[in-house]
Write a structure and sequence with these properties.
9 helices, Arc Repressor Mutant, subunit A, 3-stranded antiparallel sheet, about 15% strand, Beta-Lactamase, alpha+beta
Length: about 280
């Protein structure tokens, strides 16, 4: 019988290509990431024993790695239960990733609103406790809204972009973003926090925010929030027009285009299509 020549096994049982890859990885980092992926695969929560069994890591190794992940807020212990869950830092990083991708995804929607309405279009994103304007399409008319600069939004409580995003945030987060006082920019600016909260309830009900000369005299803006699979705010889109063009028909067109774009982007980021009455657009006088 002819002898069969078998390939020589790699060191520690690894094939040569896998062995090369192993030399460029850090085992503890690899295992920590494996634990995070495993928790996610198991629905966001898992016991220590389940994680050990799923990852083929011993209990002690899992426990030490989880302790480090908890310290960094990538994992959290579920109170009153022997479960480990994904921590808030995961959401923060995921949210940051969405923000990086937002301008690219939003570009065709911004251009479409600009083409259909002829008006100035803004895209905003939440970056920590700051609401920022990240993209602008200038109006096609000779008379247009002064858009200002990209960067931190100067008056979220008075601008449709800001109100569209603030409406979906917890009150404590709203307060962190807005600070202790609400500056007045025009006679229409809301400067009392409780009145703003009430106005934002209307935003949630109608599906869009309205800035009716609240930030700039002679300018009306309509904005709508972009939300992800968990309902968290990713950003917002708005269209702005001088009051000289703000007929009922033109405002209705702006509202429709802004809401449709925000909904389409929300679907791209995993948010289910709006079905409830709370999320259907309703005109407000």
């Amino acid at each position: 019988m002819d002898a069969k020549v078998l390939p020589a096994p790699g060191i520690n049982g690894l094939e040569p290509d896998k062995r090369a890859a192993s030399r460029h990885s850090i085992q503890s980092v690899d295992r920590a990431l494996l634990l995070l992926e495993t928790i996610a695969d198991m629905g966001g929560e898992a016991t220590l024993t389940e994680l050990s069994n799923r990852t083929a890591l011993n209990i002690s190794t899992c426990h030490h790695l989880l302790a480090t992940l908890i310290k960094r807020n990538f994992v959290a212990k579920v109170p009153g239960r022997r479960l480990y869950a994904l921590g808030g830092r995961i959401l923060y990083i995921g949210h940051a990733c969405l923000q990086v991708d937002l301008p690219r995804r939003a570009q065709p929607h911004l251009e479409n609103i600009n083409r259909v309405t002829g008006e100035t279009v803004h895209l905003a994103a939440q970056q920590g406790d700051v609401l920022s304007i990240v993209s602008v399409r200038e109006a096609r008319h000779a008379v247009r809204v002064e858009t200002g600069k990209l960067g931190k939004m100067p008056a979220p409580h008075a601008q449709s972009l800001g109100k569209a995003m603030l409406a979906w945030l917890p009150e404590d987060e709203m307060r962190r973003i807005l600070g202790k006082t609400l500056a007045r920019y025009t006679a229409n600016t809301i400067v009392e926090f409780n009145a703003l909260v009430e106005a934002l309830r209307i935003v949630r009900r109608t599906g869009y925010a309205l800035d009716k000369e609240e930030y700039l005299p002679g300018v009306i803006c309509i904005g709508a929030a972009i939300r992800d699979h968990a309902g968290a705010v990713v950003g917002a889109i708005s269209a702005s027009t001088p009051t000289m063009r703000a007929t009922e028909d033109h405002l209705a067109l702006m509202r429709e285009e802004v809401i449709n774009a925000a909904r389409a982007l929300s679907v791209e980021f995993g948010h289910p299509a709006a079905q409830s009455n709370l999320e259907r657009p309703q005109a407000v006088a």
